[in-house]
Amino acid sequence: MQTNTPLVTADGVPLKVSLNKALRQKRRQAFILTIPLMLFILILFLIPIASMLLRSIENPELNKYIPNTVMALQSWDETKDELPSEAVFKTMVEEIKRGKKDSTIGKVGKRLNFELSGMSSLFRTSARKVKKIKGPPYKEQLIKVRKQWGDLATWRLIKRESDAYTASYYLAAIDMRFNDKGEIAAQDENRRIYKFLFIRTILMSIGITLMTILLGYPIAYLLATLSVRHAALLMILVLLPFWTSLLVRTSAWMVLLGNEGVINDLLAYIGVVNDDNRLSLINNKTGTFIAMTHILLPFMILPLYSVMKTIPPSYMRAARSMGATQLRAYTKVYMPLTISGIGAGTILVFILAIGYYITPELVGGTSGVFISNFIAHHFFTSGNWGLAAALGTILLLFVMALYALYDKIVGIDNMKLG
Q1: Residues of the chain with pLDDT under 50
Q2: Model pTM score
Q3: Considering its fold, how many domains does the chain have in total?
């Protein structure tokens, strides 16, 4: 006779309730163990990215350092061909004097100089000479200090960039700008560099990725098919670069590729090139291409090897037994099974390549640098953090789009890195 009495534990608790309690406890323990990792990601990854996204549109300088002028300009109609009123000029004079005393007026000029060349000089000069202005007429006296104060473009720029948020940085990142009338226009021809840099970065990264596939595929195949002893030795050679500093490896390529370097000396010694016509292998695209291919090659070999190692040798033997040639069996049976490894290595190498900084900086010269080098330049040299953040955001969005495309075509679940 069957009964519906539920199973219970030794202490009388229903077994189902006890199992659910144990499962919840395990989940809680697992969550607690992941808290340090989540805090690490939040503090060192998510917050900096959010800060970068905000900095690419943030525009606080004018509101912070000349707030009264910004407020006074709200009633000025910039569409008319008339300069602001005498009251606006008076307010500007007072705030330039205060900014000179507080050492803040230069920050206004620096910010506006990102949009219009000469603005930094305008505010520095005005800060030195404006102390002579004791009373009205403020408009005439300020224009005498620098003629640019009588230019409508100057005041239109000040009013336009007085908003708390701006699209100027993103426009500059795609070689566009606001013109004097506030309309979006193409950047001056001598300042159109970022589209070209993005294209160069993408094309060279694609070329480097293809080269790592070409060089890495046979190496990974050897690793997967050689005896354990020989495969272990080859694996040590593949991993050896990871035991050496990236800076040291790049410096080694500078020695090898230089005009008086090892490669050119060898080619000149055996008569391939004349001593006066040595190959230009460094401070150009060639140097960047060679050095980065070497540095990123292990990141292609390891995913390929991890996939090839799982392919049973019996597949090739079966194809041969059914009449296929060695080449046909390899191309029709073996290679399709390695697609997931190729995909994983490709996206890994490509994403690493487009964000590389040290190697292009050291061996790329002017023609072999990437967009990442200009991002670093604006962060550390020019001080244009907004433009650097906008360039970084565009690069981030491109990588995310590439990742989404890979997931749609190949499937991220099929990625095998080891």
Answers
A1: 1
A2: 0.87
A3: 3
